[in-house]
């Protein structure tokens, strides 16, 4: 990935525009955790034991998933899916709201029905969310 990124940067006519484009920032953030880990390994093992550093590296590794968005430029199916999701954003939000209400209602019903049983797994309404 690093070689590809560097070659694209070198061959770009406008390097500042290349470096500041959204997809290339995602690429840089996806490559960065490797070099952060490599640097911290050379600095010493005690620094790698810091949980904040490890969490930051994991957060940057998640940026690799965003590279999938680059495929949308080349795939008409992904472009169609993106358009469909954007077009039905309100309906999807409404669906998720109805789903959440249903989960709350049925988990409360499940908890209420099972609370008198001594060996119940539903000790609280949030614990019954998974069942609902």
Automatic annotation (TrEMBL):
Membrane topology qualifier: Multi-pass membrane protein
The answer to keyword Ribonucleoprotein applying to this record is: no
Q: Which residues cross the membrane?
A: 16-38, 92-113
GO MF annotation terms? voltage-gated potassium channel activity
Q: Which Pfam families does this UniProt record tie to the protein? A: Ion_trans
Q: Record's superkingdom?
A: Eukaryota
Every Ion transport domain range: 1-132
Write out the entry's keywords from A to Z: Ion channel, Ion transport, Membrane, Potassium, Potassium channel, Potassium transport, Transmembrane, Transmembrane helix, Transport, Voltage-gated channel
Organism listed in the record: Eurycea bislineata complex sp. BS-2020
Instruction: Write out the annotated subcellular location.
Output: Membrane
Record GO biological process? action potential
Give the PANTHER family listed for this entry: POTASSIUM VOLTAGE-GATED CHANNEL SUBFAMILY F MEMBER 1 (PTHR11537:SF171), VOLTAGE-GATED POTASSIUM CHANNEL (PTHR11537)
Q: Which Gene3D superfamilies match?
A: 1.10.287.70, Voltage-gated potassium channels. Chain C (1.20.120.350)
> Could you tell me what this protein is called?
Potassium voltage-gated channel modifier subfamily F member 1
Keyword set includes Lyase: no
Q: Which GO terms describe its cellular component?
A: voltage-gated potassium channel complex
